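ok so i was messing around last nite and threw this chain in just to see what happens. nothing serious, just curious
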Amino acid sequence: MKILVDADACPVVPIVEQVAEKYEIPVILLCDTNHVLHSDYSEVKVVGAGADAVDFALVGLCRKDDLVVTQDYGVAAMILGKGAYGIHQSGKWYTNENIDRMLMERHLSKKARRSKSKHHLKGPAKRTAEDDKRFAESLEHLIRNIKRE
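result:
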């Protein structure tokens, strides 16, 4: 098992590395040429700056039983199809049981945003220490479940 991270603007990279090191799991951070990442623990792979370049590279590297950290539901659906595990930066696990609903909600949200005349929607709330704690606990729980299987 390895952990692959869609690391472009990903706020949980330090947490992923800390937990991965504890469990001695290799980590690959994928980013595009617009982001500069350095790591003492992880392998950093820089891919082209195309719209979905990191997503396609991540899915291409992903193998059965790998763990992927991404906030992209489309990427999550593809890695689940390969027999891998997925987790969102919020700590929510992607599963075969919830991915269809998540994709539908994303589609409906996007449709609603397009129908509004104003395109100045508020972004996500600022990340808190509680968010980081929740993610770390969820990631560790998922890793323990994977290792038990």
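not much to say yet. The chain is about 45% helix and 15% strand.
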